[in-house]
Design goal:
The chain is α/β, with parallel strands linked by helices. The chain contains 9 helices and 5 strands; from the N terminus they run E-H-E-H-H-H-H-E-E-H-H-H-E-H. The chain has a 5-stranded parallel β-sheet, with helices on both faces. The structure holds adenosine-5'-triphosphate.
């Protein structure tokens, strides 16, 4: 089974692409979902995180309070690295375990911070979703009301388009309609299916 990593900046259309791939029958493993699973109450990573960051990062139900934690690591790189050192190996382990049970020509691992966490080399192929920053800002503004300033804060902390391009084997440019995006996804799906054979 080919292991395909999918990444892209905020609002580039990663979810729009993975939803269409899933509709085509492609197994999709989403790092965000595994991260949420790993930070539920009783998970070992949660106890480790609470030990390092204090009980204030736990909600009343014992889950990780992701917003409180985000606030704590915001602008504190050392703390962010400490968190990543606990959480990222756990997410990777869970994704690999889930992938090992699959039987498909290829599977897609959606990892927003693929480049930032130096994981590109772990995959057979890297697929990058791109869209112009102004369009991404507009789309996420419409989706969740994110301000232009908050959008800039997030993009400044992420890899640049050029860095993602450098790691890319395949690029999908999501600057048109959803229909046009789906057509690109279908063409890529056919290429990947024949590559996997
Ligand atoms: P994030 O990084 O925030 O998780 P993402 O990369 O997963 O975002 P999506 O959620 O897929 O991006 O897209 C952002 C928003 O833009 C969504 O509301 C989505 O429906 C919309 N969108 C994506 N592609 C298109 C398109 N081609 N035409 C119109 N709207 C689009």
């Amino acid at each position: 089974m080919l292991r395909i990593a999918l990444t892209g900046g905020i609002g580039s259309g990663k979810t729009a692409v993975t939803q269409h791939l899933a509709a085509l029958g492609v197994p999709v493993l989403d790092a965000d979902e595994f991260s949420h699973q790993a930070t539920r109450a009783q998970e070992p990573a949660v106890a480790q995180i609470a030990k390092v960051f204090g009980p204030e990062v736990l909600s009343a139900s014992g889950d990780l309070d992701r917003a409180a934690l985000r606030q704590m690591i915001f602008a504190d790189e050392a703390k962010r690295k400490q968190l990543e050192a606990i959480l990222h190996p756990e997410i990777r382990k869970r994704m690999n375990e889930a992938a090992s049970t699959l039987d498909a020509p290829y599977a897609v691992f959606s990892i927003p911070l693929l480049i930032e966490t130096g994981q590109a080399a772990n995959f057979d192929l890297v697929l990058v979703i791109e869209a112009p920053a102004a369009l991404r800002a507009q789309r996420v503004g419409e989706r969740s009301g994110l301000s232009a300033e908050a959008f800039r804060g997030i993009t400044d902390a992420q890899a640049s388009d050029a860095q993602r391009r450098q790691a890319a084997d395949e690029v999908i440019i999501n600057d048109g309609s959803l229909q046009a995006l789906h057509a690109q996804v279908e063409a890529l799906h056919r290429r990947l299916q024949s590559l996997a054979q």
